[in-house]
Design brief:
Distance between the termini: 7 Å
Helix content: 55-70%
Number of helices: 4
Shape: globular
Order of helices and strands: HHHH
Number of strands: 0
Number of domains: 1
Strand content: under 5%
């Protein structure tokens, strides 16, 4: 994927999460996910999507792509997207 494609997909994830009521908000990085309800986890994912955009603008593609993979994994685990949908978005 090009940086522009990653930006487009991450923006789409953030927009979808916003429509579903999840606004960007980072979590406490020293706590496990069991300490957070689903809503806080998805708010963190929305925050990561925004961070992906900033990282790519700053030229930190490696970190942006780590975030992107994490975001996709969380979206799959929470049933937001199926694996086939995520795979298609990566083309």
């Amino acid at each position: 994927m090009t940086d522009q494609q990653v930006l487009q997909v991450a923006s789409g994830y953030r927009e979808r999460l916003s429509r579903e009521g999840y606004e960007p908000h980072p979590i406490d990085f020293n706590r496990t996910t069991s300490a957070f309800p689903k809503s806080r986890q998805l708010e963190h994912v929305a925050w990561l999507c925004r961070d992906i955009e900033e990282l790519l603008k700053a030229g930190d593609r490696e970190r942006a792509m780590r975030h992107f993979g994490f975001v996709q994994g969380v979206l799959w685990v929470h049933g937001i997207y199926a694996i086939a949908e995520l795979r298609e978005q990566n083309r």
